[in-house]
Amino acid sequence: MTRSALTPSRGSSLTRGPQPAALAIPAASVLLATALSALPIVSNHGWWPDTGLLMLIAWRLLRADAWPAWLAAPLGLVHDLMTGAPIGLSVALWPAFMLAFDIIDRRTMWRDYWIEWVLAAIFIGLFVIAQWRVAAWDGAPVHFASVAPAILIGIVCFPIAAFVAARLDRWRLGR
Amino acid sequence: MVASAGTRPGWSRRAQYGLFFGFVATVATVIVGLLMLILSLAAPQSYAAVRGAALDFVSPVSNALNEVATTTTGLVSGAGDYWNAARQNGDLKKQRTAMLRRMIEAKAILLENQELKRALALRERDRRTVATGRVVGSSFTSPRRFAILSVGKSDGVEVGMPVRAADGLIGRVIDAGSYASRVLLVSDRANIVPARLVRGGLPVIATGRGDGTIDVRPLEVGRNPFRKNDIIVTSGTGGLYPPLWPIARIVRLDDDGAIALPLADPGQISFALVEPPFEPTAIAEAARPEEAR
């Protein structure tokens, strides 16, 4: 019994440890999710979920120490460049979201799945509304009704991002 | 589950400073981000090089995957064509004979037109397509309507050039990288196209609505001049878009205007043609309001 446990075997829980790049995996997964905006989807509506933002929120809700809060700014810059949003929108908003999450972490006593979903819904809504206002200042004032579906779709898609983040976290830590 | 309490430094002065400077750094990045945003709203041209480089970085992925997507959708719609093929065939033959008749008429009109223009000694510059590319992506997560085109500066594309498909106007180039460019679609709210009604030639203004449709208003206030299925074409006013490019078909009337659907759907077209601006001075004119904005 003891001997069989000591012989290194692939995949056993004893020999499994954190991945070599465990610290970089959360940020890398956000970058990868952002890169999904390069998919050849030609849509007449801007209603597709913002995968980069969803991954960012999912990781931050899962772990307070996924990355230092300021790292959200460079991630946001990549997001702005890839999605063609006005440069600076995500650079300003993403670290601001990190600060808001820090405050929320101090104030909430209990956390369960529903509270996390509500928090995610609030931040997805804030981002889409900010994007809508900035587009209006940039000369494209569309009706709110034409961006509201984007909020709903983002909220509905959030559990997928939360699931992916949770699985990635287990894998990177070797659990 | 208890909330993750975040990092509590305890009595360690070192850990306390670490947390505090982390907070200061984050606030600083927020301020930097706001400044960048103000700059990109006030002077969009200042980021032209960076945005072009980002486009070049993104477009190979879109290009490669676009082939896969086209093949897949082609298989699905190809199978659909076999359904009810005999009746479709009959309909198409009928349409074809009607089209042939119209085409001969059109050729005669063209000839007459050329003769008339010669008589008037009206000179028109030689117009050649700058580049032909595919629409390989779009801004599918934002309220703005942009498309990504697989041609860039190395093919001669410049910011401000109008883009069309065989079916009609698509938009104009707003960012150009070396191998890809970003097009402001006619359905974007910021894209305002001087146009006219084919039936009667009444001047109208076409503005995007941000959801794939176009808002059309007559220049002169009065009775609503639109009818369902009317076609609007570019008027050439302003010098950016050449005249008589088809833009959209009216699908619904409202109080003092109408809502139209672009004839060239960027999701359906296979090729987009980048053309030189109608009047060469138009690029300077088009660049000016961008900076003033």
Amount of helix of chain B: 25-40%
Strand order of the largest sheet of chain B: 1-13-4-5-6-3-2
Total number of beta strands of chain A? 0
Order of helices and strands of chain B: HHHEEEEEEEEEEEEEH
Which spans of chain B have pLDDT < 50 for at least 5 consecutive residues? none
Structural shape of chain B? globular
Question: Strand percentage of chain A, roughly?
Answer: under 5%
Spans of chain A with pLDDT under 50 lasting ≥5 residues?
none
Helix content of chain A: 55-70%
The largest sheet of chain A is: none
Q: What's the end-to-end separation of chain B, in Å?
A: 50 Å
N-C termini distance of chain A: 22 Å
Would you kindly provide a written description of the structure presented here, covering whatever features stand out?
The complex is a heterodimer of chains A (175) and B (293). By secondary structure, chain A is mostly helical. Chain A has helices spanning 2-6, 25-35, 51-62, 72-83, 89-107, 113-137, 148-173. The longest helix of chain A is centred in the last third of the chain and has 26 residues, at 148-173. Chain A is globular and about 70 Å long. The model of chain A has no long low-confidence stretch (mean pLDDT 88). Chain B has 293 residues and is α+β, with helices and mostly antiparallel strands. Helices cover 38% and strands 22% of the residues of chain B. Chain B contains 4 helices and 13 strands. In chain B, the strands form 2 sheets. Chain B has a 7-stranded antiparallel sheet with strand order 1-13-4-5-6-3-2. In chain B, strands 7-8-9-12-11-10 form a 6-stranded antiparallel beta barrel. In chain B, a hairpin with a 4-residue loop joins strand 5 (169-176) and strand 6. The radius of gyration of chain B is 25 Å and the shape is globular. Chain B starts with 12 loop residues before the first helix and ends with a helix. Classes of the chains: A mainly alpha (175), B alpha+beta (293). Chains A and B meet through helix 4, helix 5 and helix 6 of A and helix 1, helix 2 and strand 2 of B.
